[in-house]
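Data availability (excerpt). The following record was deposited with the supplementary files.
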Amino acid sequence: MYSKDGSPGPRQDTGLQDNGFQAYDAKVRRLHGARGDYEDFRRPRRMRGIRAVPVRVIVPNLVTLLALCMGLTAIRFAIEGQFETAVIAVIAAAILDGLDGRIARVLRGTSRFGAELDSLADFVDFGVAPALILYFWGLHEMKSFGWYAALVFAIAAALRLARFNVMIDDPNRPAWHAHFFTGMPAPAGAIVGLLPLYLNLSIFAVPNVRALVPFEIAYVLTVALLMASRIPHFSGKRIGRVPREYVIFVLFGVVACVLLLASFPMEMLIALTFLYLATIPFAIRRFNAYAAQDAARQASAAAVQAPPASQARK
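Predicted structure:
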């Protein structure tokens, strides 16, 4: 603003003009290399929080990764034709798979990440590895039919694991369902599915000839069907304390099984396979008994809650 004589007059104090002069002044200072009023103002850095992961969470995941390594190693030995070593690697993967969950529960290190990692490792260890071992061992004699059986076995293992992950989060699942698996578990399916190979590598020395391949394919498809089905199987996860009077017998039996498995691995695996298959009818019978008891309990509860017939007429 200028006065009547042409000299610059006093500037009016308005917010708009002040902002304009401040912006202009800042631009001029920057052009001349001077430091602006807000030059020393720095935006605070955002520190990303790094949370420490407890060791009790890491240990079960390490066991799962070791099981995954065993499954991949089994595939390598199968490609090289060392089928007995491949079978031992699958058995080692099954043992590690049984330990990682129990270690996580004991250490209270269960996590969603560990559950997902365990499912992915199980698919490789007990779906892909046994299918490829069987195919490289004898199913390739039938070419496309043998590969079809291997594919169905791996797919059945994947479906079994996916259904297990969905059912475990079901809040309406009865408590007694924890005593059973819905469908043959993937580790058991892998061990049971390798039975033709056990028979060939054991003292029975069943020949690996083309004439027997159709029966082997039928057997592999049957095991795949058991994994994908809803047939109940016993679960050993609820095995807790052993009565004091049976401790000696349990210890003796475990040590005897371990020694026999180390001395006669294939023969022992044959016996364990037939023993497991023999438990399926008993599991079905026990499951139906639990279901009948549950249905009767629900019917009695509904009868108690329902109003009497006389009140219903009124």
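Summary of structural features: Residues 13-17 have pLDDT under 50 and may be disordered.
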